[in-house]
């Protein structure tokens, strides 16, 4: 049995609102309709997916992105190391929202068409947008590996 104290009621209400809002955002993005890509240590490598970069929404610091995420990845067990690499034309960016916050990854040089994110992979859900800083839209290939370069 859970005892509710008067000062807890506001927190519960905010928690319900936050859960409902997140559900609406993910439903609009299509993430609820399709299962996230699940990976754990030892997954078959490289894991490759593709799509189209960019979109109508200006993210501010990470270029223009689609209305919903390009990919949702769920890491079911911590990964000691993982690397996400995107190859595309245009001016790509990679925006990732994960357990440790939001990251914007830009290419090493303005002329590069490749973007990479690597490091320790905490267990959790990662929402990935493949953006374009020049408001373009280009086919891309995204690969995920546990191998270091």
Summarize this, please?
Helix content is 14%, strand content 43%. It has 149 residues and is mainly β.
Task: Map the helices and strands.
Layout: H1 9-29, E1 37-39, E2 47-52, E3 57-58, E4 64-65, E5 71-75, E6 79-88, E7 92-98, E8 101-105, E9 114-121, E10 124-132, E11 139-145
Parallel strand pairs: 1-5
Antiparallel strand pairs: 2-11, 3-4, 5-10, 6-9, 6-11, 7-8, 7-10
Report what the structure shows:
The protein has 149 residues and is mainly beta. Helix content is 14%, strand content 43%. The protein contains one helix and eleven strands. The strands form three sheets. A five-stranded mixed beta sheet has the order 1-5-10-7-8, with no helix packed on it. Strands 2-11-6-9 form a four-stranded antiparallel beta sheet, with no helix packed on it. The longest helix is centred in the first third of the chain and has 21 residues, at 9-29. The chain is globular, with a radius of gyration of 17 Å. The protein starts with 8 loop residues before the first helix and ends with a strand. The model is unreliable at 1-33 (pLDDT under 50).
């Amino acid at each position: 049995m859970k005892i509710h104290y008067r000062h807890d009621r506001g927190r519960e209400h905010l928690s319900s609102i936050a859960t409902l809002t997140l559900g609406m955002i993910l439903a609009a993005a299509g993430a609820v309709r399709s299962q996230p890509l699940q990976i754990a240590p030892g997954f078959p490598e490289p894991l490759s997916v593709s799509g189209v970069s960019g979109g109508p929404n200006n993210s501010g610091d990470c270029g223009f992105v689609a209305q919903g995420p390009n990919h949702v990845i769920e890491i079911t067990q911590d990964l000691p190391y993982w690397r996400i690499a995107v190859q595309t034309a245009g001016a790509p960016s990679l925006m990732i929202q994960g357990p440790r916050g939001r990251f914007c990854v830009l290419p090493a040089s303005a002329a590069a068409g490749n973007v990479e994110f690597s490091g320790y992979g905490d267990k959790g859900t990662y929402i990935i947008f493949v953006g374009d800083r020049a408001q373009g839209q280009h086919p891309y290939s995204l690969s995920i590996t546990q191998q270091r370069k």
